[in-house]
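Predict both folds.
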Amino acid sequence: MMKRALYIVLLAIGIYSCSPKGFNDIIPETSRVEYDNVDFDMNAMSLHGDIQPFNQEIRVDTLGEGRYLINLTLYTDFPSSLPKFELHYNYPQKLIHTLWNSRTWSTLSEITQANYARLQSDYSIVSVLDHKSQNRATFTMHDQFESRFSQIDIRRVADSTVFVFNFFNDAAPDAEILEYNAQIIIDFSESNYSSCIRDLSQWRLDKEESRAITRVDASLLPVYSVWYPMDRNIPLENVTHYFDSISNMGFRSILFDDGWQNVVRFEVDKDGTWDPSEITIVKDFIQRSKEANMKVSLWYTHPFIGAHNYVFQRFDGKYLQYRTSSQPVLDIRYPEVREYLTEMYSSIVEEWDVDGIWFDFLNGYYPNEHLIVTDDTGRDFVSVRKALDSLRIYMGGELLDRKPDLSVNQSYRPVGPLHTSNTRTVNGFLGTSVLNDVREKMVNNRLLYGEFSPFMEVMGIHPRDPAIDVAKKFHSVMYSNPYVSYFSYTLPQETYETLKFWISYWKSNVSFLVESDFKAYSPSERYPAIIAGNEMKQILTVYNRIEPFDLGFFDFEMADIINSSDYPYISFKGTPTGRVDYITYDHKGVYSDRGALRFRRDVAVIEIPRGGYARLIVK
């Protein structure tokens, strides 16, 4: 956690309870704070909007070098509805090379100057980068409503870009309050922008403990997903027949994916109750999995059973819609619905004895929070999201009571496989044409949620995929938790060897790939270079032709340079203090060549097989 404020720059800027225009004063020049040529300019900040009957107080604290916390408080003497208002921060346009925003599950994380738009995101973070992917400024905010009614917009005025912290523009809480508190962080620190985003996102996550993943079982990773074969309606017996092959490949768990509903039928009774003990085919599948020393996680989408006739009759009128489906969904704002769903989940876990569970389709319900409830028939929540929070907490407790060692692998509200919408995710991605999209989503998840980000693009392998392409596909998800799906009995030998090597590589290097410092470069080019690791080992993956990558003084013992591009040569620069040897390997991990780096004007070039890597050893 960041340190508490070192000192107060500005306290109680003013109280303007009678002004219809609210606060829009210019802060004196004397309030400007400077750190290493980076200015936090109070003249650049202003508040706009009619905030009466509220008064306001603004305090700016220093969290560290170049990092500032703006504390905004509105308060009044009698309960009142919150007003629409904005806090602006003007930033010099000439300092902006690239803008990044937190649209996690999209390919729009980089914003071009011509496409400034409202950045609607559950986690509004915006970052200004220079041409070397160094942070210029990163912005985020949080309030007592977990930023559900606020967002960051971007506007262009004259020679400045205005970062607009927009409060209650589209909706406001259905409540009257005496005090409202919001915090905004502006980070001018000089470092790779990845670090700033990760720090500010963690600051938000620490304020929302209910969003944290309950637990992560490393023995479940990497995961073999039955999505691809099941989507082709292959019987479960055909999958279990090849457990030995899957185990030999290096997998220790199976994701019993959404396609299992093509085999299992929900036979509910007239009371709308479903007994999972009657589904013997699934119990047999899980039993055979465990006999093969494989753990099983279940991807579970039960809220959609609302379309079943008996369930529909039981909960008549208690339905929502989902943003990508016309199928009715049970309305979780009713306590009896939450109890029903929790019991269904819990009985699955207990009866089938699954090792892990993935919640799916737990976002995207509507109507939204601002809906005015009329003719209420027993809801205890107006807000769908608050009801969802309650469902998660209640369900999580019940699941862990039934099975204390259960791995609950998805709880973050904005993250997860929106499996019903192929326009938002690349489900079971095949070929290499989508690798830029997959890599961008993986990086964005990693930046926002760190080592526990439940990245869920399933890597599908077709028997005709060239082995080098298989290696490159694995590289696109390598800095996260890989999920792979394929027909194990149709893999060509070269493809089998390639996949097996990279799974082994991931398992051997997971502490460097996932649990160490992570930096991504050039979002405007879809992250052509990613590096992670520590002083012992660095792993750099190059996905496209780039300028020589700067390894500085080679302050590590070893580094792997992975060539996931279409070019055979990788160049980098630096000034090592001693000799640096290298060994190259092809896409199957087979030895190719060795030698010593030769620098010319601080730049060295290595020929690395496509899909393969070079290991640098610092003497």
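Second protein follows, with its predicted structure tokens after the sequence.
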Amino acid sequence: MVVPRVQAAIAEAFGEEYRDTDPVVRPSQFADLQINAAMALAKKVRLPPRDAAARIVEALELDGMCTAVEISGPGFINLTFDGTWIEELLNTQASQTQGGPETQAQRVAVDYSSPNVAKEMHVGHLRTTVVGDSLVRVLEALGHTVIRQNHIGDWGTPFGMLIEHWLEIGEDSPEAALLVEDPSAFYQAARAKFDGDPDFATRARLRVVSLQSAHEETLQVWQRLVDHSKVYFNAIYAKLGVSLEDDHIAGESSYDAHLAQLCQELEERGLARVSEGALCTFPAGFTGRDGEPLPLIIRKSDGGYGYATTDLATIRYRVQELHADRILYVVGAPQNVHLRMVIETAREAGWLPDTVEATHVQIGNVLGEDGKILKSRSGTPVKLMALLDEAVDRARAVVDSSRPDLSAEERAATARQVGIGAVKYADLSVGHDTEYVFDFDRMLALSGNTGPYVQYAAARIRSIVRKAGESPSALAAGTLTAGGAAGEPTAAATIAVVEPVERALALHLLEYGATLRRVGELLEPHRLCGYLFELAQLFTSFYDQCPVLKADDSVRESRLALCTLVLHRLSEGLDLLGIETPANM
């Protein structure tokens, strides 16, 4: 609500190049909101901070929103809003089930999750999957057409040994079932044969040639491997509550038939040349430690293709066939140089026009308590399914202790929602490009910026609404009616903003749409987590200071309507993070 207006004022006062300034907006003891933007701008525009603040205020379009606008201290801008304006805007928002702003729609291809066939998904896949899924949910809520792209690893030389191992053990053997139950065990068994049996290794290498030559039997076995892995992937996605489906899979194999032609085209355009036996491009702006141009290998010296070739093919496909306006790669941070080189090569080749944005959403590592990448006691990556099961088990112990009045089925459902929600929220609540320490105790805490804290605020409001429903006078007054977001009640009463804590809660509710827009622009889900955490805190302060069910009739209806709007926003916001809202906690 306020931030876009401040950014527009900054652009008008100082030029478009300053529009992306991110003002700090917070409550103040002197006003409803205090804006800190001038001090960050002062050095850039070579003005004293108070003078920069005055320029911003002069350009600020407030449309009768405020009763007072003042510059204080070294250059803060204090806004005091008109109470009638707050109530009108809040009641308009209360009649809507979606809080997202209208935006210019784009076609956005989002590359995320991307596990490997016949390999276990480990904790390293957690962040790419969870962050990517939250981004596609937010972008869809903002009106964009989102094309999910699960770029699974389903092609290449390892499939020679995997196929040969499958043929040896037989489809009906217990070992074959490992592809669904324990993919890493299947892969390791094949690898052990490859490393320890020369005859098997020879057959495996020949099987690679057979696969690349589209030999019918080999392709059939390859497809079985992929299909079994899909069952495993889908079990993980179902556990996580992720919106990826089989139709979203666009694996490496999808592009294999186009790689030779792609290399030829780059050679013909003078963008690729042979260097030390390999065909390489040398995109502008990339040099090694010796200062020499850095090569991007698109065809190896043995004639095989690597990730760079396939990634170039994906860009060309997503632009030419999917007609994407924006391409997002939700991929680990170590891949940054590789992806930037691929993107620059695609631009030089004309496959990625300037009108299409390609962005690497860098994903940081998940760390253990020792500050190193999280691993099991054996030193191997932590299996994602085992981690999620443990989260649910820990949550179940807490729910069993705190809510013995619930049925076993209700406790199981709540434990799943809280446990999975805690893991996802902990991941999403920090910057996606930063590292964080995986800590179950902190994740499952009912205090602080955690998933359970936000979920509990929503469950608490549901309890209030249920209690209100037990009163015939409340139902007769039409305070709450069915038909809200995700089956929630809808506020029908007029919301009156009287007390200071009501005012603070109302103003934060009005920032919901702007928050979603910023998440969509900056691709930072942690901003939505921060918004929901603050909303839960403000609701707690409101509920502690303002009686709801025991208030007089008109005040009671207003506060119930305000509670219901908060519930909408908490539930809707959590859903955009891919997190469920428990009915009871």
